[in-house]
Amino acid sequence: MRDEALAKITGGLRAIYHTLGLPGKHPLMDAHATLDAVVLKAYGFSAKKDLLKQLLDLNHEVAAREAKGQSVTAPGVSKGYPKPAKLVTDDCIRPAE
Predict the structure, then answer these.
(1) pLDDT at 95 over 70
(2) Dihedral (C-alpha) 60, 63, 64, 65: value to the nearest 10 degrees?
């Protein structure tokens, strides 16, 4: 969606995100709302509670598990996921290897 908008608007990402404040339907705003909902569900968080506290609590839980020598699943695609390369697109951010 951002690539499509970049082709139509001059000024880069800042200009595109500035349009989110304009009245009316906005596909990028809808996409962000969907992404927010999916991420909240994936982490078991509630949008009605303090998100930073929920994240800090999760961080403490993970640290406590690590301190006890328990296994912790890192974020990202599970090791057993079939064909994870299909989830990677050309426009994704790739960590340095």
Answers:
(1) no
(2) 130
Q: Share the mean pLDDT of the chain.
A: 86
pLDDT at 27 over 90: no
**Distance from first CA to last CA of the chain, Å, rounded?**
28
- Residue among 24, 22, 23, 27 at smallest CA distance from 5: 27
Question: Domain-by-domain residue ranges, the chain?
Answer: 2-71
Query: What does the pLDDT average to over 56-64?
Result: 94
Return the axis-axis angle of helices 27-43 and 51-67, rounded to nearest 10°: 40
Check if the beta carbon of residue 45 is closer than 8 Å to that of residue 51: yes
55-91 in b/e form (b: 16+ CB < 10 A) is eeeeeeeeeeeeeeeeeeeeeeeeeeeeeeeeeeeee
